[in-house]
Amino acid sequence: DAGVIQSPRHEVTEMGQEVTLRCKPISGHDYLFWYRQTMMRGLELLIYFNNNVPIDDSGMPEDRFSAKMPNASFSTLKIQPSEPRDSAVYFCASSWDSIYGYTFGSGTRLTVV
Amino acid sequence: RKEVEQDPGPFNVPEGATVAFNCTYSNSASQSFFWYRQDCRKEPKLLMSVYSSGNEDGRFTAQLNRASQYISLLIRDSKLSDSATYLCVVILSGNTGKLIFGQGTTLQVKP
Q1: Is B44 on the interface with A (CB under 8 A)?
Q2: What is the DSSP string of A46-113?
């Protein structure tokens, strides 16, 4: 199993541009999570899906952020328009259970200049 | 007040030392507890779950004190490879799937 696959690994973009982060969960995992990590705030849950349905998006910072999961093998996190304060590492994780079996992807390091 | 609090450290210890980290959580309804490890510029990985009775995995021992709402991690005979950030993680009762992470405690083991 290739694990949770995220792309791109690094993204540098200018303020105001649209950014799309991608995630392929582990096959058979019913849960998918998007986290953001910064030095100031640590790891924060943005949104999670169960069987492709968004369950809790209370961590999404504002309307500029949106996430979709069109099928069991793919999810996107979009930021439009991006701002410098969005600079962070964005992790995707998937799990076969709501509590156990979490596996994180390698993350996308986003820099907005 | 943060939901999960940890001393960020860093803890600098020599090889072979025993080191302990503590973590406190604010919500008494928390039901599941874990320690994750994160290496520099890498993703977090599960180190061990924490059970009420305490549990051990080799050189690592985890303890839970529900009355005082804290969790501990003890590392014996520290190795250079133990250098990392250790994240305390809590899940609230009935809140399926939402891992709440502490800020992490950084450990640096020196030769």
Answers
A1: yes
A2: EEEEETTEEEE-TT--STTEEEEEEETTEEEEEESS--GGG-EEEEEEEESSSSS--EE---EEEEE-
